[in-house]
Structures are given as C-alpha cells and as structure tokens.
Design brief:
Layout lengths: L6 E4 L11 H12 L5 E6 L10 E5 L3 E6 L4 H13 L2 E5 H5 L11 E5 L3 H7 L3 H17 L2 E4 L2 H10 L7 E4 L11 H14 L4 E5 L8 H10 L5 E5 L3 H10 L13 H10 L2 E3 L6 H5 L3 H9 L2 E4 L7 H4 L4 E2 H6 L5 H35 L1
Parallel strand pairs: 1-2, 1-5, 2-4, 5-6, 6-7, 7-8, 9-10, 9-11, 11-12, 12-13
Antiparallel strand pairs: 3-4
Length: about 375
C-alpha cells in the first residue's frame, strides 16, 4: 500500500481534552478526514518564548504537533523546513495567514476560511487588527489557488469583494460535527416523546458571552416574558453570566455551568427551543454556527432574530422568530414536530455537500 502524502497543518492540535468551540471543532473534524496521513501541526503563538526550542505538544508517530513563536528566527527556519517537506499545507483560518505570508507557496497551500476576519475584528472593537487582517486577507486572496469556505454565502462575499477571487478554486465544505451523524433520527424520535409529556416548554442556551451572541437581549426576555417557559444556560463564562443574572433579578439556578457535549446531548432531549440570536451584518450573513447544526441534530428549534445566517435559509430551515418568542407565540407541539423533521432534512443536505467537498479536497491533495 503506497504511503499517504505528508501534510502540514497550521493550527493548534485538536487534542481530545481541549475545549471544543466552533473553531476547534472544525479543526477536529478536518483532522478526522486526514487520520491516515502522516501530518505535522504548526501552532504559531506570539507568547511562546522565542529562545526555547519549538515545543512538542503531541507526538504519536503518525502525528506530531509543535508550538512555535513566529518572531523567532530559529522557529521560522524550523517551520519553513516543515512546510518544504510537506506535500500539502492546510492552513486553518486567515488569522494563521498573518504568519504564513513569508512561507506561502500557492502551488501546495490551502486555506480553510472559517470566517471573514477583518469584519470579525471590527465587530470585536479592534479596528487596528481589522486593518491588519484586511491587508493579510487581500494579499492571501491575491495569491491563493485553493480554499474552502463553510458557506456559499462566504464564497459570494469574496467574489464580490475581490476581483482576484475569481481565480480561486473555492471548495464548499460546510461546518459539520460527526458525533450525531447516523443517530439524529433516533435522537429526535426519543426527544419527541419527552417533549410531548412535558407540562411546559424549555428554552436553552449553550455558548459564550461574546457580544455577537446577544446574551443581553436573551436574558432580558427571560426576565420580562410572562408566559410559561423554563430556561437553562450552559457556559464556561461563569462570572459574566452570574453578574448578568443577578442584575436582572433572575434566579441563579438558571445558570447550570459548563456542559460537555455528552451533557448537552441529554439537555437537548427535553429542550424545545435554543437561542441563536445574531445581528444583521456581513459576519453573520456568511457564517455557519455549529450551534445551529447541533440544534438540528437533536431536534431543538432555533430562536432567531436575523434569519439570513449563512446558507441555512437556502437549505430551507425552520425557526422561531425572536419577536414571536418574546410574546409567547410559539408553535404547538405538533407543529414543532414537522419543523424538527424539516431541519433534519436540511442537515442531510448539508452532509451531502460536506461529503462532496471532502471528496474534492482529497482529490486535490493527491493532485498537487
């Protein structure tokens, strides 16, 4: 059997004990695609001591992962050698491209574009970083031959923003979590019965307290709504949520702390609704939140305000309008059932697109 081509992957290594936010979940998913390839991870970190040797963070023979300081000449040479020896270099996000410009070889380098970085940085209140990554993005798009996008809306964004983007071979690889694949119908069937027996609905939120999550709007509804609904919040941002609940007079018991994926699977079984509030902006128009896919896979109906998120509208997803939810105008249990089934259909379409994208990616790796 021929030896698989050696890959270099520019990102942190997705160890099993790492917190799997959307970014790391994507890296973990792609790593699974390459599980039989010898591969070397390069994680650029400015804080890592430049005088140290590159840090080995993982080594199991097939996979080696190193942490390096991009400003260290010694580390720069080390990374350059890794990229030179690799048959294919997979770069996660345009954030990493800041350090890849001096190494960039368009013939064998591929960028997985998770999000629109300049616009994200501006949303986070960092205009200088937005300007920096705007220049990085412009240079990379001008050099790129191959890239993946999580949504077709993201591809369209780049085609409209840069004339040179027309020369890029964009491969559509939707965000996808394999953990519930093949079990979604089983999970949803079980949850249908649990929800039907409940005396009142449950609405859940699992995620961070970042500004784009609009947790203040969500908590305001929890404190003001006068229709019967139970709420549960799961997050690693303990201090932020504790203070926000207190300031609104909400019971501390609403906050349940951090939940593992296994724990959330149990929570989603009895949850009717899940908050996914976003503002109308470019970042959200091209995004593909893993949260929505998790909701679809477990039969939780998303509560949204801005509904044109990524490609979900094109897939025909069913959702509850935030304005209706605030007033208690929510679908009855029978209507919820067909909405859940509709979202399962969307998930299956996404998975078909994912498989096509991964096949194209694998073919590309063998051809460069």
């Amino acid at each position: 059997m021929p030896m698989k081509r050696r890959l270099a992957i520019v990102s942190p290594y997705p160890a099993n004990d790492r917190y799997m936010d959307g970014w790391m979940s994507r890296i973990k998913t792609i790593d699974g695609i390459f599980e039989d390839h010898p591969r070397t991870y390069i994680d650029f970190q400015d804080w890592y001591p430049a005088h140290n040797e590159p840090e080995v963070v993982h080594d199991d023979g097939l996979v080696k992962a190193f942490r390096v300081n991009p400003k260290s000449p010694k580390h720069f040479s080390f990374a350059a050698k890794v990229f030179e020896q690799a048959s294919f270099v997979y770069i996660h996000t345009l954030h990493q491209c800041e350090h890849m410009l001096p190494h960039f070889d368009a013939a064998k380098m591929f960028v997985d574009i998770h999000g629109v970085v300049p616009e994200e940085e501006l949303m986070l209140g960092s205009p200088e970083r937005s300007k920096l990554f705007g220049e990085v993005e412009k240079q990379i798009i001008g050099k790129l031959r191959y890239a993946s996008v999580v949504t077709m809306a993201m591809r369209d964004h780049y085609l409209a923003k840069y004339t040179g983007a027309a020369e890029v071979n964009f491969i559509h690889v939707p965000v996808f979590d394999f953990s519930a694949l093949g079990r979604s119908h089983e999970l949803v069937a079980e949850s249908h019965g649990i929800r039907a027996r409940a005396t009142r609905p449950t609405a859940v939120y699992a995620g961070g307290a970042q500004v784009w999550q609009r947790v203040d709007d969500m908590l305001d509804v929890m404190s003001q709504a006068d229709w019967p609904c139970d709420y549960e919040i799961y997050s690693h941002d303990v201090d932020v949520f504790t203070e926000k609940l207190k300031s609104r007079g909400l019971a501390p018991s609403l906050f349940k702390g951090y939940a593992s994926k296994e724990k959330l699977e149990q929570v989603y079984k009895y949850s009717n609704f899940g908050f996914a509030l976003r503002d109308e902006c470019t970042v959200n128009r091209v995004a593909s939140p893993t949260k929505l896919c998790d909701y679809f896979a477990h039969g939780v109906l998303p509560v949204v305000d801005f509904h044109l998120i990524g490609d979900f509208e094109a897939y025909g997803y069913a959702y509850v309008k935030f304005a209706d939810f605030k007033e208690g105008y929510v679908p009855d249990i029978q209507t919820q059932s067909w909405m859940v089934d509709r979202n399962l259909g969307c998930l299956e379409q996404m998975y078909d697109d994912f498989k096509r994208g991964i096949t194209a990616l694998k073919d590309l790796i063998e051809s460069v």
